[in-house]
Amino acid sequence: xxxxxxxxxxxxxxxxxxxxxxxxxxxxxxxxxxxxxxxxxxxxxxxxxxxxxxxxxxxxxxxxxxxxxxxxxxxxxxxxxxxxxxxxxxxxxxxxxxxxxxxxxxxxxxxxxxxxxxxxxxxxxxxxxxxxxxxxxxxxxxxxxxxxxxxxxxxxxxxx
Length: 160
Fold this sequence. Notes:
Oligomer: single chain
Main location: cytoplasm
Distance between the termini: 51 Å
Shape: globular
Radius of gyration: 15 Å
EC number: 2.7.7.3
CATH superfamily: HUPs
Catalytic activity: (R)-4'-phosphopantetheine + ATP + H(+) = 3'-dephospho-CoA + diphosphate
Pathway: Cofactor biosynthesis; coenzyme A biosynthesis; CoA from (R)-pantothenate: step 4/5
CATH topology: Rossmann fold
Order of helices and strands: EHEHEHEHEHH
Structural class: alpha/beta
Largest sheet: 5 strands, parallel
Number of strands: 5
Protein name: Phosphopantetheine adenylyltransferase
Strand content: 15-25%
CATH architecture: 3-Layer(aba) Sandwich
Number of helices: 6
């Protein structure tokens, strides 16, 4: 069985992320979407909120599970008995950084592979940061994120 892990901040999950999750779930036997707990970032959504949002938008994908982790991804991979890391790429600039990450992960554990997937062209501009910026200024994000995420964003940015 090929168990893949798709790690990220997912603050919040976007249609670009969902594209990678859906396509990954058709390729791999099991996909774990792993929300990174990063003490150096100041996320809009808590880890628990991000996990719940991802669970909601992936509930119809039986081979997808959602979890969170801290520390080294390689250690998490070993805990989950997973052998493949999924990384979504939007542009060449993403590849340069992700190649470095794949290289260090390979050095830490040569049995774990990194699988790069190009995001659908219609999401190549999309990032969680862009979504948060649009939502912060009450712009429409309905074509960028699932409805449950759009509602959660509205809840975060309600002007009093």
